[in-house]
Q: What sequence folds into this?
């Protein structure tokens, strides 16, 4: 004899999953266009457009062709574009001198973007790797070790050149000790009190940056060398909290974890511990993986793109740097 109640579960979580309206009603996290930062690669010259083989859909563009992309970002409501320069070989040297040239590519592009589209946030990378003949982010001593304090002095000059060109956010991605404090003091000294710093605080020595190094043309300079003497060990997570604590104390306005998807645990720990604006970078290798699988028909492009970006929000990120930014914004708008 069966009772109408006995064997049935008391809680049925599937009730709320049954219909789209309840799924939407109880959804905890969502991706908005306001969460997106779009990284772009910029070249010298006019009318130049080069595909990046390992990053389908990503191009290196000269300023004239970048302007319509910036306009598209404005139209889509993407808050910030992040600039990465492709520097020609003749301008690279041991010290990355071109990085602090006030008439160099990055300051020139920043001035043009801020003039044409003042409402679009512009962010620039502070690190020497696109500018050095050895492809490292800092200066080398006689043994090839990356010098810290000497590098910081050069980074300060680079950040000042960017700030003087009118950039909104400087983003030191070099992982030298003390660079956030040094840059913050220099910015204040020169009256750049509004320049925001987004610190690449927990940046790991990751193999997922490969396609980016192709894109900016530092891969060949770097050769077989790695960045393990300054970028973080992928085995560490407490250390990420110490890095973030230092950067906040030194004056960072926003912090970042990089790469993204393989490091969502770190994003969550940073957000829980500090409750500051926290960003994640879905890096070139992550983009390449998803693009390659989608191109083979193994994954649904739009579905994995949106799921991967939502995962950053669920992990506690306030925003994501992603090469998918425009595609995702277009889907959100629909
Ligand atoms: C430069 C820099 C790198 C990335 C952003 N800034 C490369 C590196 O550290 O070697 C990687 C971004 C990506 O892979 O998409 N310091």
A:
């Amino acid at each position: 004899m069966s009772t109408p109640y006995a064997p049935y579960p008391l809680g049925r979580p599937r009730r709320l999953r049954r219909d789209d309206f309840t799924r939407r009603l109880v959804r905890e996290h969502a991706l908005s266009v306001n969460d997106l930062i779009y990284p772009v690669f910029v070249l010298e010259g006019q009318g130049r457009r080069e595909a990046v083989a390992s990053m389908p859909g990503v191009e290196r563009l000269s300023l004239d062709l970048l302007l319509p992309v910036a306009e598209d970002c404005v139209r889509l409501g993407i808050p910030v574009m992040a600039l990465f320069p492709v520097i020609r070989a003749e301008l690279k040297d041991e010290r990355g001198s071109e990085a602090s040239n006030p008439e160099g590519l990055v300051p020139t592009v920043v001035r043009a973007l801020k003039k044409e589209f003042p409402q679009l946030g512009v962010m620039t990378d502070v690190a020497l790797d696109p500018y050095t003949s050895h492809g490292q982010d800092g200066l080398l001593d006689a043994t090839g070790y990356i010098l810290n304090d000497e590098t910081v002095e050069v980074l300060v000059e680079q950040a000042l050149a960017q700030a003087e060109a009118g950039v909104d956010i400087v983003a030191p991605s070099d992982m030298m000790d003390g660079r956030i404090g040094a840059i913050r003091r220099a910015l204040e000294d020169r009256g750049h009190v509004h320049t925001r710093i987004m610190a690449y605080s927990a940046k790991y020595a990751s193999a997922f940056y490969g396609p980016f190094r192709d894109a900016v043309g530092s891969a060949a300079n770097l050769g077989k060398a790695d960045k393990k003497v300054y970028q973080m060990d992928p085995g560490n997570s407490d250390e990420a909290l110490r890095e973030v604590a230092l950067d906040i104390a030194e004056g960072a306005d926003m912090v970042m974890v990089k790469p993204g998807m393989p490091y969502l645990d770190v994003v969550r720990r940073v957000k829980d511990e500090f409750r500051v604006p926290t960003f994640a970078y879905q890096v070139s290798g992550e983009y390449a993986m998803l693009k390659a699988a989608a191109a083979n028909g193994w994954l649904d492009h739009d579905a994995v793109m949106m799921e991967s970006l939502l995962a950053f929000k669920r992990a506690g990120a306030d925003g994501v740097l992603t090469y998918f930014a425009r595609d995702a914004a277009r889907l959100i708008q629909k």
User: Anything to note?
Assistant: The chain has a mean pLDDT of 96. The longest strand covers residues 36-43.
